[in-house]
Amino acid sequence: MSFEVETLCDAIDKMMRKHLPPQEVRRRDATADPPDYLLKIFADMGLFHLALPKSEGGLGVGWQAMSVIQERLGYHATMAALLYNRVTCFGVMTLLTSASQALKEYWLPKLLAGEGAFALALSESAAGSDAGALQTRAEPLGSNWKLNGRKIWISGASSALRMVVAARTTAQSRGGEGVTLFMVAPDALGVEMTQLKKVGNHCSLSYDIGFHDVVIPDTERIGPIGAGFDCLKKTLFYARSGLASAVVGTGQAAVDEALVHAKARQQFGRPIGAFQALSHRLAQMQTDVDLARLITRELARHIDEGIGADRLAAQAKLVATETLKRVTEHGMQIMASAGYAAESDMQRFWRDARLYSFGEGSSEILLDLIAADLGVGRRLAK
Length: 382
Ligand SMILES: Cc1cc2nc3c(=O)[nH]c(=O)nc-3n(C[C@H](O)[C@H](O)[C@H](O)COP(=O)(O)OP(=O)(O)OC[C@H]3O[C@@H](n4cnc5c(N)ncnc54)[C@H](O)[C@@H]3O)c2cc1C
Prior knowledge:
By secondary structure, the chain is α+β, with helices and mostly antiparallel strands. It has helices at about 5-20, 20-30, 40-45, 65-75, 80-100, 100-110, 230-265, 275-305, 310-335, 335-340, 345-355, 365-375, 380; strands spanning about 120, 135-140, 145-155, 160-170, 180-185, 190-195, 205-215, 220, 265, 270. The protein folds into three domains: about 5-115, Orthogonal Bundle (Butyryl-Coa Dehydrogenase, subunit A, domain 1); about 120-225, Butyryl-CoA Dehydrogenase, subunit A, domain 2 (Beta Barrel), CATH 2.40.110; about 230-380, Butyryl-CoA Dehydrogenase, subunit A, domain 3.
């Protein structure tokens, strides 16, 4: 690694303390007010350029740096890390791995300058884990396409520079084949959005989106016609790596908060951290977060060295998100009423954690992918 982890973390710590201090994280979570202004600050710090190859105008430092950034942002505020990932994974990596030269040349500079993020519009009400069941359809219309259908739970869609929308472009009604990706502006004619209410991740606004005869120029198509699932696979590979790193940071924040509380809170005349039931629990929580960090950093090393890592990406996302769910559950038990209070950070970590083990590929589906890589599971049943 040709960068100093500590120097990078120190710079992110300073920036986050200044621009999104803990009280501001709490306020924004309570009022569902996303910190979109951070994108410009990330850009000015060069955080988007670090991992981008030199050939694309980046600094070429690689994904190990990216993993450190995502983790450190996740430590301070998951909402900041998720925003960063919508630029780097949904935006930059979709363009680099799948888009035409023209789309890349137009959109990369905007993403790198912090002008906004991309949203990924894949899920539908009947197509969650079973993405191949999607029914949104794009039909040819001269040199354009006409898009009709409905997506659900799309994060950050209304403020996105563009949504990456998966639509069926052949007559067939299910399966991964015949799906194509398109870039759609959130304010395009025929796009209608309704914001959804939810229990956590309040600063990643989620939308139900209707597409009614939305006209998309063919130049806004990402990748070849019918190759949408191959393109999505590449985007999701980076997105899972990004999410895994981000939640390792949040997991560390949860352990740190539980530790502070366990040392300060007195019951039966001593700190509750003196009781072995809690000290062992804390020791296990830190061990779990350290293990999750190791696998996410190992994944980043594989990416930097060009070693195929599909299985490792599924494993890293599985391990990191399940770890966060476990440590926040333990954190809530250790903090008890102090964690249950609305102003506690632990309750936010705990609520937010519930999403990551099913969003961007549920743990069950990831285990399916890992099993398939081992040559067992659904593939064997065919
Ligand atoms: C807050 C939020 C933000 C989101 N953001 C986005 C976004 O930006 N873009 C986007 O496209 N989508 C987004 N989603 C959707 C998300 O990706 C889906 O929720 C996820 O894919 C799971 O789909 P589902 O909720 O329909 O669950 P289902 O697919 O109905 O699954 C329900 C349960 O069944 C299990 N299951 C399903 N199939 C199998 C199987 N074959 N074997 C074993 N178990 C199985 C699942 O693991 C899960 O536990 C978001 C969702 C939420 C809640």
